[in-house]
Every structure is written in C-alpha cells, then in structure tokens.
Design goal:
By secondary structure, this protein is an alpha/beta fold. It contains 19 helices and 20 strands. A hairpin with a 2-residue loop joins strand 8 and strand 9. Helix 5 runs antiparallel to helix 6 and helix 18 runs antiparallel to helix 19. Mean pLDDT is 85; it is low at 300-305.
C-alpha cells in the first residue's frame, strides 16, 4: 500500500540548493535508510515528509488518514513535564487521556482528599479501559525501562540530553502510526540499547524512514536505501551491504560511459582541428555533435574526504598507566587499572552510558587526574583530542579562518605541501563555502571541520570521544582509512560497532564496579568472547541443576510420609481455600458498588490485593501437600 509520494520537490536556503526535483515513493512495507554527506539536505527531506517544513515547489500526495510519528534531532520539550507526561505527548485521544491521567495522579499525591480530582481519576480510568490505554501505558514503561529510564515521575528539565532523546524515542514508538521517521536515533546510545532498538524496529509492522550513520544498524533493519547527493536522490532496493554493491556497479558503468565519451570526443576533436570547414549540412551537424559531446560530461567523481597528513615521530614510550583508580562521591568508576600503550595500539573503550568510559579517556589523555595511581607520557608524544563537543569553535570565524589558525599549509605523508584551502576542499568545503561563517554550518559540517583541524595538527597519539556522532558515513569511511595508515596510537570511545570492528585491535570493556576487561581483538571478537562466557555459565547452571535433581532423587528414595503438622494442614486446606474465595468474592462485589468514593475504593483495592496474596499462598501449599499425598499413595502400591 502506498503511503506517500513526493514529486519534483525543490528546497533551497539562501543561494544553496539542497533538494532539486526530488522524487520518491514510500509504501507500508518499506524500511528506508537515508544516507549522504552532511549538509546535503537529509534532515530537511525528513522534515518535509513529516510535514514540519514546507518545500519551495513540487507536490506531496499522502494516503487518506496517514499518521506519521517523527523523532527530530533537535527536541522540543516542556522542562516541567514528567517523563510519563512527555511520553504520552500526542494528539491521539488515547495519548491525550493518558497524559491527563498522569497529571491527575501527580496532583492527587499532594491533594489526596480532593473529591474533584478523585472523580476525574475515576472517569479517566473508565475511559482508558475503553481505549485499551493500559496496554500502551504498560508498553511505555517497559520500553523506558529497557532504555534505562526508570524514574517515571522525574521532570524532563532534570534529564541529560541523551535521556531526553530516549524519552522522545519512546513517545514515537508507542503511538500508533503508518510511518515512523527517525533522525539519528542511535546517537548517545550504548551498544546494549542499540541492540534493543534494532529488535524493536525489525519486528515493527509500520514503515520506517531514518537517517543514521550506524552501518550495522542500517544493514540489519533496512530494505531500501535513499542516497542524497548534490540535490538529487537515488533509490536502491536492499540493505546497506546491497547498496554498496549496487553503487560500485553504477560507478563502474558511469566510468565506462565516460571513457567511451572521451574516446568519441578525441575523434571529433581531431576532425575539428584538421580545419574542416562548415560547407555542408553534414559538416555543420558534425560540429554540432562535437559541441554536444564536449558539453555532456558524465559526472562520475563522487564527493570524497581525503586525509593524508603527516604525523610527528613517536618514540617507544607512549602512555603508561599504573594502578589507576577513580571515584566520585563514593562511586568507583575505575579500579586498579594498569596498561602500557604501544605505538601499534588501536584501543576501543566500550560500556554502558555513564559507566566511566570518557573518564578513562580523560585520564589517559592527561586532562583528568586519577584518585590513585599515575600516568606517564613519553617525551615525543604529541596528543590531540577529538571531544564530543566542538571545543574552541568561534561561530564568528569563517571556515577558512578557523583552519588557518592551525596552519596556512600542511605537509602530507609523501612530503608534498597542501594549502589550508586545498585541505578544506578535500573535506567538501569548496569554493564560497570556505568563506561561510561557522554559525551557518550544520551540526555535521561543524564536526567535520573540527575533525579536520585536529588531524591537521599532525598528532602521533589520537584520542577520539564518540567520533561517529554527527559524522556522515563517507567521512567515517575515510577516517577509518586514515587510522589504518596512521603512524601512531589511537584510543577511541565509541558505540558504533561497525567503526570499532573496522579500526581497533584491542578492547577495554567496563564490566561494572570499576572493573575494566582488557581483550585483544575488535568488537565482534569481544561479543564472541562474552557469548562464550554466557554459554559456559549456562552449561554450569545446567550441570548444577542436574546434580541437585540427583540429590533430590536420592533424598526421595527414603520412605515418604506427612509430618503431624502437614497431616492436619492437608485435612483442613480445602475448607480454608473455599472460605478465602468467598471472602474475595464479597470484596470484589463491594468494589463494583463503591461508585466515585475514591478513598473507600483505595481501601477495598488494598484489601483485595492482600486476599489474593493469601489465596495464592494457600494454593501453593495445596499443590505441595497433594504432591506428597500422591507420592505416599504411589509408595503403597
């Protein structure tokens, strides 16, 4: 079923054309990933499809009643809302009712005797029963818990940026829709959360349209790729791996066509240079043909990011950490950590959010002192740090001015010199864009510019803190190539599994309680190791259970009989169960007749819960005693 069609969509900002006659179609079975260099209009395209931004021209045809849920990069939230109120944000009746319910429950905590609030709560309870709202509430709490948001009454203004993003993600996941649109949903998520989101989206029945730099995430979820490039959009059926194969075939075909065009151009050029005069219609047509071939160059060259700077010489001694520990207010983040960094090291630091990854990186980089232990640096170390924030980026500087603060030119690995302007061109800052103020750049363009500045400083030890956040896939690919050829040490904190598999040869994994596991290999090697450990634990558990069963069997070989107390209990338990069931039935009748008396209702519900627990206990005892009785009867045969 077709959901939405875009025809000849155009969008420009000032003199920059982002989208030029874009055409696309989305069906209910599509799970689409949008890729492209930062600043090419990916997020703008999402906004146009979501209906939060208008196009300059073109038409959009939507299915009648189309419901779209949209998660933007920049969140709009009310800091006074609780987590649950924010989760139930939306214009659907069930979401509005849940939001009202959360508000009334919150007010009753401070005004428990307010009759008006009690009546509102009773009315909302009935309405949610009719709308099946409790299922949505249960699903919301389950998703929030999986996303490590457990205080549902906390105010949005008290949460970190990453936590707010997860609350907003929960909102779009629980609200029914035909098309789910996500802009960088995995940013600021650890690997465990990304795995969970993967499973949710794979099993989701609605269409999905998303921007993400996480290539494993793309590969495992999508069945179609949209590539945005120079104002145009190309569609590829299949996941990210299939896209790469088809893109290579397309580029090879274009290169072949361009080669044929150039050969034809040479022949026509030779004819023109022989001085042929345009005396006939045939000759005039041939000259016209030459001009057409000359002007019809096939664009094969892709925008690429090239990094080939020389690094400073690095001696044998790099960074040595001895018995490092770090605590904050009695919370141990790192405990007794020792490691000697070598020149060949490509280290990936992994673990859940807030566990201490950046703290360890800061200690190894000399930005933070450990509580105990010491860090020693080699004399030749030239360390540069790519942080999560674009530090020292003056928005009033132009792009070229920002880079020239490092150097007017740099020396490459082969000894040649490249000017700051030429280096910017290699980073896709061409022509007039070099004179653009930094304040006008997109978030991804700022990250790319900041990365260029760090690499132009020719470090021999590179520390990267979540480098994949806000960088496009093409920049990441070339950064990976740069690290492959980097003549120095690299230590990186990242949640990007593809990036980690591509570059690292050693893992530091935070296991909890300050313990840091050191493992040789990449991220997939680490996952395999952990799965092996889990299998061994499960096998040990099965072995222990088997031994316990054997012990129980040996124990059961002895004569079986009731104790005096058990015999008496067995004789009376049926009557006790019947009496308890009658008592419970009586309370439930009173609940149904309680009307809007909120105080009485709360008392009855509390008593009902207690009776259910007592009945459950009696039923468990009945099962246990009957098993013994059956064994006694069997032993007599």
């Amino acid at each position: 079923m077709n959901l939405i069609t875009l025809e000849n969509i155009c969008k420009s900002y000032s003199e920059k054309t982002l989208l030029d006659n874009i055409k696309l179609n989305i069906t209910d079975e599509d799970k689409i990933g949008i890729i492209g260099v930062n600043g090419t209009g990916k997020s703008t395209l999402l906004k146009i499809i979501a209906g939060v931004e208008n196009c300059d021209s073109g038409s959009i045809i939507k299915m009648n009643g189309l419901k779209i849920n949209y998660l933007p990069q920049e969140l709009d939230f009310n800091g006074k809302d609780t987590v649950m109120e924010a989760v139930f944000k939306g214009d659907l009746e069930v979401m509005e009712t849940l939001r009202q319910y959360e508000r009334v429950v919150g007010e009753l905590q401070t005004h428990s005797g307010d009759k008006n609030l009690q009546e509102q709560l009773f009315s909302l309870n009935s309405k949610l029963d009719a709308l099946n709202g409790w299922q949505i509430e249960s699903e919301a709490k389950a998703i929030l818990t999986k996303l490590n948001i457990t205080d549902f009454s906390q105010r949005m203004g008290e949460l970190s940026g990453g936590q707010r993003k997860r609350v907003a993600l929960c909102n779009v996941l629980i609200s029914p829709c035909h098309l789910l649109i996500l802009d960088e949903p995995t940013n600021h998520m650890d690997n465990e959360l990304i795995d969970y989101l993967e499973e949710l989206l794979k099993s989701r029945k609605s269409a999905v349209l998303m921007i993400t730099h996480d290539r494993y995430f793309l590969d495992r979820i999508t069945n179609k790729i949209f590539e945005v490039d120079n104002g145009s959009l190309d569609s590829y059926v299949g996941n990210y791996s299939t896209f790469l194969e088809k893109k290579m075939e397309r580029v090879a075909m274009l290169e072949s066509l361009e080669k044929k065009r150039q050969n034809l151009y040479k022949n026509e050029l030779a004819w023109i240079r022989r001085g042929a005069q345009a005396r006939s219609t045939k000759q005039k047509a041939r000259i016209q043909r030459f001009e057409e071939i000359r002007d019809s160059k096939i664009e094969v060259k892709e925008d690429t990011v090239e990094i080939n700077t020389a690094s400073s010489r690095l001696g044998k001694k790099v960074i040595e950490a001895y018995n490092i520990s770090k605590s904050y207010e009695n919370k141990v983040l790192i405990k007794d950590f020792t490691y000697i960094v070598t020149k060949e090291d490509r280290i990936g630091i992994i673990g859940s959010n807030g566990i201490g990854k950046t703290t360890l990186l800061n200690i190894l980089g000399g930005k933070l002192k450990p509580t105990t232990g010491e860090v020693v640096f080699g004399e030749t170390v030239k360390l540069r740090y790519f942080t999560q924030e674009n530090t020292d980026m003056n928005p009033n500087l132009r792009v070229i001015e920002y880079i020239k603060e490092v150097a007017e030119y740099i020396t490459t690995a082969d000894g040649s010199k490249i000017t700051a302007s030429q280096m910017l061109e290699r980073f896709l800052f061409e022509g007039s864009m070099q004179f653009t103020f930094i304040s006008k750049l997109s978030g991804g363009e700022k990250r790319r510019l900041y990365l260029l500045k760090v690499l132009m400083e020719a470090p021999n030890v590179l520390l990267l803190d979540e480098p994949t956040n806000d960088l496009d896939i093409e920049t990441l690919t070339i950064l990976e190539d740069y690290i492959d050829n980097f003549n120095g040490s690299v230590i990186v904190v990242s949640h990007d599994r593809y990036f980690l598999d591509r570059i690292i040869n050693k893992v530091f994994s935070f296991e909890g309680n300050g313990e840091v596991l050191q493992l040789v290999g990449n991220y997939s090697d680490y996952r395999e190791y952990k799965e092996t450990i889990i299998e061994e634990v499960l096998e040990e558990k099965v072995s222990v259970e088997k031994k316990n069963k054997n012990l129980e069997k040996n124990k059961n070989d002895k004569p079986i009989k009731f104790t005096f107390k058990e015999q008496k209990e067995f004789e009376e338990i049926d009557d006790k169960i019947e009496a308890k069931e009658l008592e419970l039935e009586e309370i439930q009748n009173k609940i149904n007749k309680s009307g809007s008396d909120f105080v009485l209702l709360q008392e009855l519900l509390s008593f009902e819960s207690k009776l259910k627990e007592e009945l459950e206990f009696l039923m468990d005892r009945w099962t246990y005693l009957n098993e013994i009785y059956e064994q006694i009867q069997a032993s007599k045969k």
